[in-house]
Amino acid sequence: MRKVYRGRDIEVSFDLDICVHVGECLRGHPGVFKLNRRPWILADEADADDVAEVVRRCPSGALQYRRLDGKPQEDPGEQTQVTPMRDGPLLVTGQDRSHA
After folding, report:
1. Nearest to residue 32, comparing CAs of 9, 2, 61?
2. What is the mean pLDDT of the chain?
């Protein structure tokens, strides 16, 4: 289930069911992403460009963003990439063309 955390210029959504707990978000910006706080995502704690950059580092797609300030939306890219995780799942990123 995807939950949305709305900020002034960007909203971040998170789906716990697909998170692989790599921690890129927590290392990327501890002011925005903090596990021991509710809500754990505060999108206004950083510039929207910085928040978007951290969200793009999420290897599973559990984090996604939507710009509210008119800047370009998240682009999953044209190339499909498959990244093996040590002792874990394969992470697949790219555009979903099954509904095209």
Report:
1. 9
2. 87
96 belongs to a structural domain:
no
Residue 36 in any domain: the answer is yes
- The answer to whether residue 99 scores a pLDDT higher than 50 is no
Which CATH number do you get for residue 46? 3.30.70.20
Residue 59 sits in which domain range?
2-73
Domain count within the chain: 1
Per DSSP, the three-state class of 81 is strand
Between 50 and 97, whose confidence is greater? 50
Residues in Cβ contact with 38 at an 8 Å cutoff, skipping those fewer than 6 apart: none
Q: Grade residue 8 by pLDDT with cuts at 50, 70 and 90.
A: very high
Contacts of 9 (CB under 8 A, 6+ apart): 43, 44, 48, 67, 68, 69
pTM above 0.85, yes or no: no
Torsion, Cα 6 12 16 17, to 10 degrees, reads: 110
Tallying the residues shown for the chain, one arrives at 100
